Amino acid sequence: MNIGSSNDSEAVKAQYATSKGLNTRLSFHDKYSTNKLGYGNWIVSNYEIHEGMKVLELGCGTGSLWMQRDELVSKFGKFVLTDLSEGMLATAKGNLGERDNMEYMVADIQNLPFEDNSFDVVIANSMLYHVPDIHKGISEVRRVLKDDGVFYTSTLGENNFTDRLAEWFKLGGESFNPNHNFTMQNGEGILKSAFTDVEARFYEDALHVTDIEDLVEYLCSLASFKAILDIPVHKLSDILKDHAVDGAIDLPKEYGLFIAKGTSVLSSSYSIK
Asked: What are the backbone dihedrals phi and psi of residue 31, each rounded to the nearest 5 degrees, phi first?
């Protein structure tokens, strides 16, 4: 996830150039999230993917969502995993290996290299808020989906622990510009530019952090959270400790998933055919 401004494209590229920082963030959430089902497990539980379906994932990252899901992946007629980062794709390939029904590809959601009506399912997790022209990207998703296809896209909400941290670190104005380009609050309206049927589902969770140094490491992995990076590490620890109760820090989390279907008459406004 991203805390800083989405307009800093170089920071975003740096944050996702390799899997190291992402792995830090994923392991942090795995360790300290109070909902032990796990966000990834919950996301997959919402998918309806039947035998032989063609599936496209945009922004696959490390491929961690599909690890230990061999039975599910084996059902896909075709599975194309894409990312803007070659480094991420290399990590995903290392994690998931190669299968006859799998393909790895560098691709941009704004200009997808696929024919119309190519996929039964398109998946984009925690990435739409980074897309410069989000309407163009969503229009491309609708284009490559079959008429009865489904788009699953997860994102964060606007009532998250980032706002709490900004308050603690006395950030505001240009020093705290949260990425609200695509959230659980505004995502439905954005998706309806290309889809007629959009459903929002929320994931109940929070953070209970018992090792403050892990939280410091997490914050330092966010290349786009520049205001935090300007604060010395020891000072970060001191500020966080001031907000600990019995040695632990509790923070809110707000995440969820949209399920989009159907073709909106508005989608022609963003068509790039």
From this structure: -75, -40
